[in-house]
Amino acid sequence: MIEVKDLHKSYGKSGKKNALNGISFTVEDGEIFGVIGPDGAGKSTLFRILASLILPDSGSAIMNRYDIVKDYRKIRQIIGYMPGKFSLYQDLSVEENLKFFATVFGTTIEENYHLIKDIYQQIEPFKNRRAGALSGGMKQKLALSCALIHKPEILILDEPTTGVDPVSRKEFWDMLARLKEQGITILLSTAYMDEAGRCDRIALIRKGKFFASDTPKGIIDKYTESLWAVEGSRMSAILHELRNHEGIKRSFAFGDKIHITVDDDLQIDELKQYLLDKEFSDVKIASIEPTVEDCFMALTSK
Ligand SMILES: Nc1ncnc2c1ncn2[C@@H]1O[C@H](COP(=O)(O)OP(=O)(O)OP(=O)(O)O)[C@@H](O)[C@H]1O
């Protein structure tokens, strides 16, 4: 179990830059807990503190009975940490990297091969290739293998899917689901809101603070406003006109659509006519169910 209480951290002389502003949460054994938020929100700072790499200014954290400050040696044994930036030795081969991490932790690849088999088998054909010459998806699989090779109880993965193609991202999440089945607790961060649904619980973070924490469904269920998706061929011009409409509370581009939150008394046909009058003739508008990203936008615009 992970128990985090009121963590604060600032950087710079006289602590000018507040990175964490009082973070508290718990993660149960075997849970996948996702910390979701934009760049600079404080995710890496939080994970570096929990991995015992930097000290908090105040607050505490217990990871499976061990205190991150007092018991930092033990913490490093029971966690597997995959930093956001590529952490492997670029000039060592795939196999040499894995051997190195196994040796540091006093184990061997053979001893814990069963844990990494699923993942490592996919990169084993390239075991003699330099890590620096691997694709993004393969680097990520090697980094995860290295984080797992000492059989950690808790995995801390900082933005593990950033810069990874959609197929490798899906494979990665399937692997995490299998690790969870083996009882490993997984704490990860992501800037991709569509990954929220693969977590048991999530926390939304912004400016060093969690502003919502629940199951993905729990977060979505709290969204009670009317939400529509607008499609058309001149998206930025449509967005501009929508922002001038007083019945629209919020609007933002969402992939190839625009999501808008509207006043309860506005009707779809009424808005279609408004856009038609502005010469947008091919506009489609439909009522939709919110996603975690819609919740994030709603909560951060308050
Ligand atoms: N070593 C440092 N010195 C000064 N400021 C820092 C340092 N590390 C992070 N920060 C600042 O602290 C804030 C939180 O950064 P952090 O890296 O924890 O966020 P993040 O959510 O992980 O984002 P990113 O994905 O961009 O790393 C940011 O404003 C960042 O600029």
Automatic annotation (TrEMBL):
PANTHER family: ABC TRANSPORTER G FAMILY MEMBER 20 ISOFORM X1, ATP-BINDING CASSETTE, SUB-FAMILY H, MEMBER 1. The keyword ATP-binding applies. Residues 2-232 form the ABC transporter domain. The keyword ATP-binding applies. This is ABC transporter domain-containing protein. GO terms for molecular function: ATP binding; ATP hydrolysis activity. Keywords: ATP-binding, Nucleotide-binding. It comes from Fermentimonas caenicola. PROSITE patterns: ABC_TRANSPORTER_1 (PS00211), ABC_TRANSPORTER_2 (PS50893).
